[in-house]
Amino acid sequence: MEKASTGLRHPGNPAPPLHDDTAVMLRDLLWLNALIATELIQLVENSSAFLRKGDIPESCLLEHAKLRAVALDIADRYRPGTEIRQHVEKHG
Predict the structure, then answer these.
(1) 3-state helix, strand, coil in the chain (%, to 5)
(2) Helices (H) and strands (E) in the chain, counts
(3) What is the pTM assigned to this prediction?
(4) Of the candidates 48, 90, 54, 60, which has an alpha carbon nearest to the alpha carbon of residue 72?
């Protein structure tokens, strides 16, 4: 027996709607990728500061903040209520 459809589909996409389990899996993967992205940004900043033996250029910090914000928006959109935003805010 086939599961009920969530009706999730990209406008103009002729593919059938996603099933509930597929939609949940995709939300989980999007959230996980957003988490990985924010942690990689932090790793780059930490490595840069270590290798430079000093501060990271302001332009990099601004660009990283924008990238981090996009990743957090994606995480919040697909799995709201997780601790990812609070964790990332602790990074500084």
Answers:
(1) 65, 0, 30
(2) 3, 0
(3) 0.71
(4) 90
